[in-house]
Design goal:
The protein is an alpha/beta fold. It has a five-stranded parallel beta sheet with strand order 11-14-17-10-18. The chain has a four-stranded mixed beta sheet with strand order 1-2-4-3. Strand 15 and strand 16 form a beta hairpin. It starts with a strand and ends with a strand. It is built from 23 helices and 20 strands.
């Protein structure tokens, strides 16, 4: 008897329905075709034990199983439940007309219980699109799949529950998800809050600007100055994810098997890979491509601590995803694309010794060592980082201050207001969501400078020897600073502040650091003069 049962395969972040055809006929044998991997080929042993321990058995006949489309490679053990139910119906041990109306996925233990699977959310989304009545899967994944509205999701503990439902002997009800309420509640209680940070008002201001405009940022400072502490708190001031953003981010984590108890990711992800990370682990890949760290950070933050310690070739593979906001992984027979729109936050020491810009520490690095250290970061990568800011150690008076700093919730409100301005501005540009994504054409349209602002920028670029690539970055950051003030036009003081945040620009950095100088700009509106103050 020939029967059809349906499962699903996930490629990239999208699912494809798999039709499992099971034919039970005279003879002896077990033939599984349709490009299954070893985990699927081994399923016969798990299925045989699970069926026997639940009062059923593999038929002593010839079983031919085809997984269509046959030219698409299938992987993983999640097809155990699909195959087992097909075998039961095909061999006549289970009589039902419901088998073809649902999707069944789950890895079987030898006692018939089910183990969690990857990719439950994209499978549920695809199942709803193709008109299936529901989705049977392990109970551990039910909260995740139930995010899909108006689609019945049945979380079960073992194969017997699925059999009882197909026989009509079950009172099993669709799982009701509460992830929207649970996830939204987490936003009000971030694990890391800016109220814990003592001092560092300038750095907090930079983080607010970066969050408001989606700008990449690098923090330069000695060990112990608070770079990592500040970076971990950046997600707490980013705007809440919209539902489409949350679903897309959750799909990526679902495919990678990284979801925790709360099925829907409402908090923006924060990923911090170690500097020994490989190319594949960072951008994704493998024989069966999986999303890498840059995709797991989609709609969130990717933090690279001690940036110069990362292997140069690892950093270089990030250049294309930073520009295109997606990464494409090609193999001989297929290509998958993962979204990777993230904010890059990096940190580094100012010198190999680490304490160059610490006034209380002696300078131990020569100019040649400094140059070699800085050259570990390529110009093209640095070109994609909008804000460079120096982090100084916090003095004792600030550390011992018992007064609470401004909470992340208050900063986030200002960020949300600035993002709302950008949403309205780029309403006709669906590929641009915030200032950091502006093209040169959009810059000419929305970052128009008056004469005083233009004169200030010209003076700064000439006297500080800023590179040409710094020009666009300064304009983008200045546009964000103006948005935080709800200013329609960019003023000279916006440009002046943005210039401060280019301290690592390649042409100007070494000369200033070697003389322990940090340039600060102030514009005096009354007479239009520019003062450069070296501290």
């Amino acid at each position: 008897m020939l029967v059809k049962v349906f499962g699903s395969a996930v490629f990239g972040v999208e699912a494809t329905t798999i039709t499992v055809e099971v034919n039970c006929d005279k003879g002896i044998g077990y033939h599984l075709v349709g490009l299954p991997d070893n985990a699927i080929k081994e399923s016969s042993y798990r299925i045989a034990a699970a069926l026997k321990n639940n009062g059923y058995s593999l038929p002593g006949k010839k079983l031919t199983i085809n997984m269509a489309p046959a030219d698409l490679r299938k992987e993983g053990s999640a097809y155990d439940l699909t195959l087992a139910l097909g075998i039961l119906v095909s061999s006549g041990q289970l009589q039902t007309e419901l088998l073809g109306e649902y999707i069944f996925m789950g890895e079987l233990s030898l006692d018939g219980s089910l183990q969690p699977i990857k990719g439950a959310l994209p499978i549920a989304i695809k199942g709803k699109e193709e008109g299936f009545k529901g989705f049977f899967l392990p109970k551990q994944n039910a909260n995740e799949a139930a995010i899909v509205e108006d689609f019945a999701v049945y979380g079960i503990d073992n194969i017997q529950e699925a059999i009882d439902f197909l026989l009509g002997d079950s009172t099993l009800e669709p799982y009701q998800s509460s992830v929207y309420e649970e996830a939204a509640a987490l936003l009000d209680f971030p694990e890391f809050d800016f109220s814990d940070v003592k001092g560092q008002h300038t750095i907090k201001r930079c983080m607010e600007i970066a969050a408001a405009g989606g700008h990449n940022i690098i923090l330069i400072g000695p060990p112990g100055s608070g770079k990592t502490m500040l970076a971990k708190r950046l997600p707490s001031i980013l705007p809440p994810m919209t539902l489409p953003e949350a679903l897309e981010t959750t799909k990526i984590h679902s495919v990678a098997g990284k979801l925790k108890e709360v099925g829907l990711l409402y908090q923006r992800p924060f990923r911090s890979p170690h500097h020994t990370v490989s190319n594949v682990a960072l951008v994704g890949g493998g024989s069966y491509p999986q999303p890498g760290e840059i995709s797991l950070a989609h709609n969130g933050v990717l933090f690279l601590d001690e940036l110069p310690e990362f292997k140069r070739d690892v950093l270089e593979v990030m250049r294309q995803p930073l520009e295109d906001r997606e990464v494409t992984i090609s193999r001989a027979k297929f290509t998958v694309t993962y979204p990777s729109s993230f904010m890059l936050v990096a940190s580094m020491n100012p010198s190999p010794g680490g304490y160059f810009n610490d006034p209380s520490a002696p300078v131990t690095s020569s100019p040649q060592e400094m140059q070699r250290y800085l050259n570990r970061i390529s110009g093209p990568l640095l070109d994609r980082i909008d804000i460079h800011i120096e982090v100084r150690p916090v003095p004792f008076e600030k550390l011992s201050d018992t007064q609470k700093a401004e909470a992340s919730s208050l900063i986030r409100q200002r960020v949300i207001q600035a993002r709302a301005i950008q949403t309205r501005r780029f309403m006709d540009n669906p590929k641009v969501n915030y200032n950091a994504q502006m093209s040169p054409a959009l810059l000419r349209q929305y970052a128009v400078l008056d004469d005083s602002s233009l004169a200030l920028l010209k003076t700064a670029m000439e006297q500080l020897n800023l590179s040409a690539r710094a020009y666009d970055r300064i304009l983008k950051v200045a546009r964000t600073i103006a948005d935080l003030e709800s200013a329609e036009n960019i003023g000279a003081h916006h440009i002046a502040e943005a210039i401060q945040y280019r301290s690592l620009d390649r042409e100007g950095w070494l000369d200033f650091t070697l003389s322990s100088q940090i340039a600060r700009f102030y514009h005096v509106a009354s007479n239009g003069r520019v003062f450069i103050v070296c501290l």
